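Would you be willing to look carefully at the protein I have copied below?

:::
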Amino acid sequence: WVEHDLGVGDLFVERDGSREKRWSLPFTSTPLQNGLRDGFIYLRANRHHDQRIHEMWRSVVLRPQEDVVLRMVALLHPGVRRLAVDWVGPRLHVRTRLEDSEEPVPLSVLGAGVEDVFQLALSLAHARGGLALVDEFATGVHYLALDDLWAMVFAEAEASSTQVVATTHSL
């Protein structure tokens, strides 16, 4: 739970009747900036900035967490085989190679929900062993995919000892 006083929020974990302070977060009149601190990540509804996506991708690429990201994205579009994140001029481009194509295509052509799941998967991979706060997690994801997506989020969170707190209007 969160207790706050004088603009600082403390997140606690309670086990067997005792409280343990885990994180102190500044509270402001504007949303927390997306970021990662000591096993904590906040993914808000309008998602991460390009620089954050690039940093997170660099930390998971060619590691087991990359497979988790790919599996979660492939849940929404089973034809996804590979992902690449790179800068083209001042903009970050996330591209994918699909099963039936030799040329990469922008991930954005697969829909906003696929892009959102990509960022959610990166966030979960980053928060391993910590806390992921996800705001409006299901925005842009087709309702028929939500049950499988939630199941995958729960499985990854359990496998990586990550606590996930998500807000949604999709229940």
Q: What stands out?
A: The radius of gyration is 17 Å. Residues 58 and 85 are 9 Å apart (CA to CA). The longest strand covers residues 18-26. DSSP finds four helices and ten strands in the chain.
